[in-house]
Amino acid sequence: MSGARSSNRGALSSNRGALSSNRGARRTMRLAAGLLPLLFAVAAFAAKTQNVVLIVSDGLRWQEVFTGAEEDLLNDKAGGSWLSDEDLRKRYWRTTPGERRAALLPFIWGTVAKQGQLFGNRNLGSDAHVTNGRAFSYPGYNEMTTGFPNDAIDRNDFGPNPTPTVFEWLNKFDEFKGRVAVYGTWSVFDNIFNKARSGLIMQTGWTPPKKDRDTPRAALLRRLYATTTPFDEEDVYDSFIQVPLLDYVKSSKPRVLFVGYGETDNWAHLGRYDLVLDSAHRMDGFVKELWDTMQAVPEYRGTTTFIITCDHGRGSGLTEWKEHGAEQKGSENVWIAVIGPDTKALGERRNSGVVTQSQIAATVAALVGKDYHAAVPRAATPIAEVLASK
Questions:
Q1: What is the pLDDT at residue 352?
Q2: Burial of 106 per CB tally in 10 Å (0-12, 13-18, 19+)
Q3: Average pLDDT of the segment spanning 297-321
Q4: Is the pLDDT of residue 135 over 70?
Q5: Would you say 256 and 169 are in contact if contact means Cβ atoms under 8 Å apart?
Q6: Exposure of 136 by Cβ count < 10 A (0-12 exposed, 13-18 middle, 19+ buried)?
């Protein structure tokens, strides 16, 4: 879906000096007092969260996450469905928004919402948005992984990212070296994370998984990569990345992990709302599978935090939902969910103010006890609300 993706700051003098000094001291004290909660929060993390996973469902709108299926799109005319209206409604339509979203995303609403936090339901005064001004994929992934937008990135075929991501930064620490990985369906992740420079472990696009072992399972997977008709030249199916991802987690025990699922964006660009819902539902199942797999391993149990989000929103209405970008109003709006041992179980946030996509990079680092914002001052500060232990 490369084409769609591309479209995709004397005594009187002495008194005045003293007054100025006192005012300066008071300002310094106020600033320090304001920073203390964040500093204490960041410093508290090494004790509990030891591993962090950033998961992205490309282009999945906040509307579906918080209110479930949109009724006006559950048909062939506006939603492009190949299912009968009756069958599609049976799958995803429920009377209330709470019931609809639970039917669509049972893990997010059955587990993450109960044990963690979700930002971005604008109906409840929770604002999560991008700051890159473009609202398409490469600028979004760059913002969330570096902590700030790069105005030069104005297309998805921009090429290798000149800015190191927080993943590359963390990989330089001895405790993370060789245990930071990127698994994603989009081949452009090779450029976003600058594979050649960063040295990160990466499995992306249609590149077959490495032949580390000659088990029948591994051989079958490589055969499927080699013989399946591609969706397009850049995007492998979500299910194809899930298998090597789980194998890698079990065998190599990564500390910091990026996972990118792409079908929610691809099917929207094709105008298939039924498959947007199906791929969102399956993405939720893949996230649950990854969570359950990690929680079953002693090294991960009770020490792992998931951040789940999207790279951009989309337009609304009967046609604009298919596209995104500066021209489609609402594409700047995203959602962010966090679950882990250091995140209070506050559920769906109400009147929570503003969080931005740019805060994700420093949040990833803070969760494993590192101050990315101090090292990269241009990066936004972490999301303080998810750094307060229970």
A1: 86
A2: middle
A3: 97
A4: yes
A5: no
A6: buried
CA distance 335 to 173: 30
Sign of the Cα torsion 204, 183, 219, 278 reads negative
Which pTM does this prediction carry?
0.89
- Which pLDDT value is given to residue 47? 55
H/E stretch holding 23: helix 11-43
Distance of alpha carbon 320 from the chain centroid = 23
Please answer whether residues 382 and 38 qualify as being in contact, where contact means their C-beta atoms are separated by less than 8 angstroms.
yes
Share of the chain above pLDDT 70, in %: 87
**Rounded distance, CA 150 to CA 236, Å?**
27
> 390 versus 166: which is more confidently predicted?
166
Structure tokens at 238: 């979500």
Average confidence (pLDDT) over 33-56: 66
Full DSSP string of 288-304: HHHHHHHHTSTTTTTTE
Q: Average pLDDT of 240-249?
A: 96
82, two tokens: 């190949």
- The per-residue pLDDT of the chain, averaged, comes to 90
Q: From the CA atom positions of the chain, what is the Rg in Å?
A: 22
Helix or strand (DSSP H, E) at 182: strand 180-184
CA atoms within 13 A on the CB side of 161: 27
Task: State mean pLDDT over 113-138.
Answer: 98
**Which positions ≥6 away from 65 have C-beta within 8 Å?**
101, 105, 108, 118, 120, 335
